[in-house]
Amino acid sequence: MPPLDEFARIRSWTEHRQPKALLEKAGVSLGIGDDAAVIDGAPGMQWLLSADAMVERVHFLDETMEEADIGYKALAANVSDIAAMGGLPKHALISVCAPPAWNAMRIGRLYDGLYACANKYGVAVVGGDTTSAPEHLVISVTLVGVVEAGRAIKRSGAKPGHIVFLTGPTGLSAAGLHGLLMQSRGAPNVGTLPARLVQAHRRPAPSVKAGRLLLETSWGESLNDVSDGLASEAWEIAEASGAKLVLRESALPISGELASFASAQGKRALDWILYGGEDYVLLGTADGNRQVALQALFREEGLPFFVIGEVEEGTPGVMLETAFGVRKPLGKGGYNHFPEG
């Protein structure tokens, strides 16, 4: 039996566990396998349900994150999942498992950041749980959002003739993490770490407004948020849609701060852009005939919008076209909790 990666393991743990009739009776329109589940709710609306956990030493480190940043980011990751469906975040349940090293003051600062994110995005924190833990902190967030019935934007809508777009640059969070780690270890050649990279890692900005624009215009055909890395998310759309995505290296957005910092560190900015993750911008596809209108709409709203490739006929997968016009398969890469075995 071949080794199972993270996503194959999730499928093996969850597929065919419940009868279809049970799920339908419970109002499940879309279950496990996208950014959020879609559940039938009030007339004309559906619920979006998302859950994420952050584990100390796996998702965050004391050396790179303040307590308030951890709380903020834990909720922001869920808000991004709702944004990736074109929905609005509404209600959150927060569970915290705290080890002895996390005293009441530290947990208080964690909640300071969590509520800062909640208030910014209009999320009501309505409950949860707190327990002790033996060694490392775990924070788990369940977020409920809403979307117009039948209109949630899924990963599975990519078709030949679509453009591939991003609602912001990628790689900033990974570069920020690299710089913060180097600083914490006393590396002599870190230099000045751009504030934008630090902010991208500690306090990411989910693209809720962009997701709503794509839904309200009906111009977003498929959508995914960039949590595990651009390459990985592109593959998720390709596999869900049965489509071939071609990304153009020359079209990938790169911030000046990222380019200069990568050069100073002797790193390839492209590696962070493709495989960094935790940027929480949106990756999606749209009808190529809508490109000009979408660019104009996002410009009017003061939001970034980058066309980075196309969807073509062919075997489902992801290709990268280099600056020299050479195409090569793009590996999934990105973060994987269970890479093998």
Description:
The chain has 2 domains: 6-148, 60s Ribosomal Protein L30, Chain: A (2-Layer Sandwich); 155-329, Phosphoribosyl-aminoimidazole Synthetase, Chain A, domain 2. 35% of the residues lie in helices and 25% in strands. It has 11 helices and 13 strands. The strands form 2 sheets. Strands 8-10-7-11-9-12-13 form a 7-stranded mixed beta sheet. A 6-stranded mixed beta sheet has the order 1-2-3-6-4-5. Helix 3 runs parallel beside helix 4 and helix 3 (67-83) runs parallel beside helix 7 (208-216). The radius of gyration is 20 Å and the shape is globular. The chain starts with 5 loop residues before the first helix and ends in a 12-residue tail after the last strand. Mean pLDDT is 90; it is low at 337-341.
Looking at this protein, list some descriptive labels:
25% strand, 2 domains, Phosphoribosyl-aminoimidazole Synthetase, Chain A, domain 2, 341 residues, 60s Ribosomal Protein L30, Chain: A, 35% helix, alpha+beta, 6-stranded mixed β-sheet, 7-stranded mixed β-sheet, nucleotide-binding, 11 helices
